[in-house]
# Entry
Amino acid sequence: MCGVVGILLKTGNAVPDVIEGLSRLEYRGYDSAGVLTINNQNFQKVRAVGKLESLKNELRSAPLSGAIAIGHTRWATHGGVTIDNAHPHESGRVAIVHNGIIENHRYLKKLVQDQGYQCTTDTDTEVIAHLIDYYLRLGNEHHIAVQKTLNQLEGTFSIVAVFKDRPSLMIGARHGSPLAFSVSEHGSFIASDAIALSLWSNHVCYLEDKDMIIIDDHKVVVLDEHGQPIERPFKNISHLNLHSDKLGYSHYMLKEIFEQPQVVHDTFSSLLNDDESDIKLDARLESILMSAKRIKIVACGTSYYAGLLCQYWMEAYGHMGVDVEIASEFRYRQPYLGDTDLAILISQSGETIDTLASLDLLKSQNIPTLGIVNVLESSLMRRSDFYIQTLAGTEVSVASTKAFSAQITVLLALVFKKIEPSDRELKIKKFLNIPKHMNCVLDQFDDIMKLCNPLIQSKDVIYMARGMNTPIAFEGALKLKELSYINAQGYPAGELKHGPIALIDESLYAVVIAPSNDCLPKTLSNVQEILARGGKVILVTDHHSKIDSINPYPQHIYRLPDCDAIFQPFLTVMIMQMLAFGVANLKGQDVDQPRNLAKSVTVE
Ligand code: AGP
# Structure
């Protein structure tokens, strides 16, 4: 997924603003970046491979200046990470930046080559620029040339285009990838999302799919998919903590880990009625939920693990059937939905393409859809029948932490809705104390960091648990993988003897979550099986578990603060997050922007 910015100022140099905007979007992709402006009817551009800092360095030696500028931060989909493939891309009179994938780009590339265009990059984006220029040469007006081009594209895109012969004209278009704009007394701004636009205005307008925005000499017109002018509403985003500042933490991820108690409190409080005795939902959603016998949860990555945890909770306490699906599988496997009363789609970004495609599939079969989403005005939020916003605030670090805690907070609130009112009120009261317990875990950050050293040299790490900590073991493995690049795999502990035990030798580390519950003895047997074969164990348990019988003893033990078993995942997941953070940091990895990853996977 990439970040796009386009700025037309009334006076002054737009390039520094574009760079500032890109810095707010870098979490969307960061393998190369570029900026372009127009002077004396000529394009001037600077591009660089690497993070945005590389582009800033280039600009220090080759500064650009102009009242209009477009910029791009890239996460490579088509074509390697090279200067030539970095955006912006130009052809004749037009230059563009693009987020998305053009699925018929090979066909279009042939088309433009037949018209004499030389394709010099490996990107799909280049063909968009050639096509627009082609239609300009045929004498079309600029926005008609853009529209004719877009009509030929298949796939997802958001683009911003500028024209050397019209230095006060900027055209943006949205089709499947988010795009928004704002205006102020200084000029007009287009960007991939509100995080960038909040630099220049608290009022943002989110384009709908197939909208086109034409900014011509500061006059702004939005055209809908039929080419008709349309007024899209502006949203006030001043209340969103969109600021992306580390607030003194070494990394965004660490800040976001430490924000979790507050995020859980804020998200849960937003769902409570006035006397905190009940969960308040949209009336129609509540009616569907209360009568539902079976729900389906669909998501990707960390959000999928939130859904898995909900399955444990909802089936045990809500006495309702729950299926949890990986979106990229669900959307293609022709699922049977005859007994699905409600579908819940979970997504931090609200733009994950497989989750959105699953939403469309579910809606096509008239299944009521609830989106649990963090980013305001995201596609999932706007296209679901119902939505609940997680109040995690902007999650800048690519590895999801506070968004996960906020997601499971919403899911637990839905579980509470399904239990007896008297029991519900009691559980609500108990849960209101959980942020305090989470803070106790955070207070032991230094102790947890001590557990990280042994993992640094590991080639393989397995994570294991039983019951509702099993999804947390999966999430812990994902965190370690994506942050430290160590191969890590989560297993239900009961699966150890069904294959994974073959992995065990002196080089293997296991992180085992085993609080004192009726599964503890069985999990301790698994711990014993690992230790007996020379494997090493980091055991996460509590103060009540009897583990003296284990021989040899686990290398490291972390004991959780006391809390009801149902709430333990809120504590154990933070230990997983801190472990992954500590190992990656000790290995000197880029914690906030791990290699190859993007914050939201808006392409298949
Ligand atoms: C989480 O640490 C990962 N970055 C990734 O698995 C993420 O959870 C997944 O891509 C889903 O993203 P979404 O929640 O925005 O849909």
In short: The chain is about 35% helix and 25% strand. The pocket of 2-deoxy-2-amino glucitol-6-phosphate is lined by residues 300-303, 347-349, 352, 355, 398-400, 482, 600-601 (CB under 6 Å). The radius of gyration is 26 Å. The longest strand covers residues 166-175.
